[in-house]
Each structure stands twice: as structure tokens, then as C-alpha cells.
């Protein structure tokens, strides 16, 4: 089975993942979570989204 590589721009995938994770982590920061932890979660979400997009899983 050959995975289909995404035709999307990696920047588009990164921005989409960052916006999605940013909404959740912004709420968590407003409830008292450390902004650095929220930034780490957002960065991790972007990296995972880019890997999945590159692998053709999404």
C-alpha cells in the first residue's frame, strides 16, 4: 500500500495545528497553567501534525 503524500503546503498544516492547539492551551492558561507548558503543547501538536501530513496519514 502506497501512502498518498499531501499536496498541501506544510505551512498551512502547521498553522492549522497551531490554531487548534492554541485554542485549547489558551483556555488552560486562563485557568492557571504555565504559558511555557502551553507553548510546548502547541509546538508538539505542530510537529505531530507535520509528521502525519508528510507521511500521508491525514
Structure, explained:
This protein is mostly helical and 58 residues long. 72% of the residues lie in helices and 0% in strands. The protein contains 2 helices and no strands. Helix 1 runs antiparallel to helix 2. The chain starts with 9 loop residues before the first helix and ends with a helix. The relative contact order is 0.22. The mean pLDDT is 86.
Task: From the structure above, extract its key features.
mainly alpha
Describe the structure in brief.
The protein has helices at residues 10-30, 35-55. It is mostly helical and 58 residues long. The model has no long low-confidence stretch (mean pLDDT 86).
Strand content: under 5%
Query: If you compute it from the alpha carbons, what radius of gyration comes out, rounded to the nearest whole angstrom?
Result: 13 Å
Q: Give the % helix.
A: over 70%
Summarize the main sheet: none
Spell out the helices and strands N to C. Answer: HH
Oligomer: single chain
Distance between the termini: 15 Å
Flag low-confidence runs. none
List strands and helices in order, with pairings.
Elements: H1 10-30, H2 35-55
Amino acid at each position: 500500500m502506497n501512502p498518498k503524500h499531501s499536496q498541501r503546503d506544510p505551512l498551512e498544516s502547521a498553522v492549522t495545528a497551531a490554531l487548534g492547539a492554541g485554542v485549547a492551551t489558551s483556555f488552560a492558561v486562563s485557568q492557571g497553567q504555565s504559558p511555557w507548558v502551553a507553548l510546548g503543547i502547541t509546538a508538539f501538536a505542530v510537529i505531530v501534525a507535520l509528521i502525519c501530513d508528510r507521511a500521508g496519514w491525514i
